[in-house]
Amino acid sequence: MQPILSLRQVSKTYASGHTALDHVDLDIKRGEIFALLGPNGAGKTTLISIICGIVTPSTGTILVDGDDAIRHPRTARAKIGLVPQEVAVDMFSRVGSAARFSRGLFGKAPDAAYCDQLLKDLSLWDKRDAKVMELSGGMKRRVMIAKALSHEPDILFLDEPTAGVDVELRRDMWKLIGRLRDRGTTIILTTHYIEEAEEMADRVGVIDKGKLLLVEEKATLMRKLGKRELDLSLVEPLAALPPELADWQLSLEDEGRRLRYTFDAQAERTGIPSLLRTLHDLGIAFKDLDTSKSSLEDIFVDLVGARG
């Protein structure tokens, strides 16, 4: 199936010489939720701004559902909804009229039934006659989503969609994003909340210093790069690791009271049986053991940290 969004060799270098994006290649599948992760200044917002026609790329091509976004920006932009990080809406406008006005900006014929249903889906119906300035931060974020969806786009960009909202509202937003995907909307989000990507994304991309480090199915990424840890609660604390344990990737935690073994769960041999035998031979007893696997956050930190 043809990707709904395709980028080839997209770069952005400013007059100052700063390269914000460095030859990015990326295909987004129709109907997926794609999470773009990266630290501050990594190039996430620059990439979105280029796709949406806000920033002009220095090099590269961008196809939005087959349309050249650089040659025909208006046609391509009409297929995109954008929810930026910052709340950008007339604070004196009414919630209902804000959504209807945005629909008209993209040349869509008025459709009161669609806009009304959109407000209901976003739990904004009771606030339809309220001024935006009267809403909470989370509700303002919902208005931004209503504006972005008012012209029925095929692709929705969410740049830090839950920044500054409380945990309960964040979970509500996750459910909303899931419902939008179920309707066929392709969703691309950037986020600092890695649990957000872990909860919702089908695929994950990691960007740092303008370079796209990897793009991978979330489950595959966690299986390939994820590590497992075995924690042993020791009966007696150790001051240091005995040299006989040098063959295993071990660390002492909790002032020597816990021994942590990090291993690859996909390896043919984990090394656990031989480790336990060696501990027994050394007279190192443990009273409890526990295993855990790395999260998407652990993988992200490792990837970005490895680049210095």
From TrEMBL:
One of its GO terms (molecular function) is ATP binding. It comes from Sphingomonas pokkalii. The keyword Zinc-finger does not apply. Keywords: ATP-binding, Nucleotide-binding, Transport. It comes from the Bacteria. Pfam families: ABC_tran. InterPro entries: AAA+_ATPase, ABC_transporter-like_ATP-bd, ABC_transporter-like_CS, ABC_transporter_ATP-binding, P-loop_NTPase. Residues 5-234 form the ABC transporter domain. Coiled coil: none annotated. This is Multidrug ABC transporter ATP-binding protein. SMART domains: AAA. Transmembrane segments: none annotated.
